[in-house]
Amino acid sequence: MKSFLSWIIIFISTLLTGCASTFTSQVSVFHEWPGNKQATSYIVERSPSQENNPEYKLYEEELRQQLGLHGFQEITAGVTPALKIGMQYGTSLGEIQVSAPWAPAMYDPFWQMHFSRGYRFSPYSPYYFGSPYYMSRNLDFSVRRYYLHRLEINISDFQSGKKLADIKVSTEQLNQQISEQMPYLIESALQGFPGINGSTRNVELPLKK
């Protein structure tokens, strides 16, 4: 029994250590990006609600910096851009239930990342006790609250309005402040741009200290 509890402590410590050193997000990419496209001049397109939003403008500046690292160039006055780029973001609340410490839930926080959902872990097996209600009455559950932070970046042709790329990024964190996640979300979104059309992948970035 002691060795089993020791293994659990080591396992949980490993998970916490990993979470503390990296930022993990899930990135989905859909695009019709021309393979020979050279024109990367752009203008940032804001919605009316974003126009006078100081928070949005802060994130927009972070987006500009990341776009510059990938060869995009923001236009100067009097120049017609090749692209227009828009950005939306948001946070939703989710809850998960974790079993008692001696039976930890093996929970993957990145499963079905682009959907609002909760996850309930149940150690019930139909081969034991005969009733699912037996387990629920006798287990002490603790609740941890996660926040799902989402970012979407759209890139369209300026002249025709045709959408060329749609990038969705999301991450689940215990911290509800999206402002602390946005630099990582934007960097994750543009990593390997344009990427494989229709692909969804996990991206890990080292946390900045």
Describe the overall structure:
The chain has 209 residues and is of the alpha/beta class. It is 27% helix and 33% strand. It contains five helices and eight strands. The protein has helices spanning 2-21, 48-51, 54-69, 132-138, 182-190, and strands at residues 22-31, 41-44, 73-74, 83-98, 119-120, 142-157, 163-173, 199-206. Strands 1, 2, 3, 4, 5, 6, 7 and 8 form an eight-stranded mixed sheet that branches. β6 (142-157) and β7 (163-173) form a beta hairpin. α3 packs parallel to α5 (182-190).
Topology, number of strands: 8
Radius of gyration: 22 Å
| Distance, first to last CA | 39 Å
Helix-strand pattern, N to C? HEEHHEEEHEEHE
Shape summary: globular
Major sheet, described briefly?
A: 8 strands, mixed
Keywords: Signal
Pfam families: DUF4136
Signal peptide: 1-20
Organism: Undibacterium aquatile
Provide keyphrases for this structure:
209 residues, alpha/beta, eight-stranded mixed β-sheet, 5 helices, globular, signal, DUF4136 domain-containing protein, DUF4136
Give me a quick take on this structure.
By secondary structure, the chain is of the alpha/beta class.
Write the layout of secondary structure elements.
Blueprint: H1 2-21, E1 22-31, E2 41-44, H2 48-51, H3 54-69, E3 73-74, E4 83-98, E5 119-120, H4 132-138, E6 142-157, E7 163-173, H5 182-190, E8 199-206
Parallel strand pairs: 2-3, 2-4, 4-5
Antiparallel strand pairs: 1-7, 1-8, 4-6, 6-7
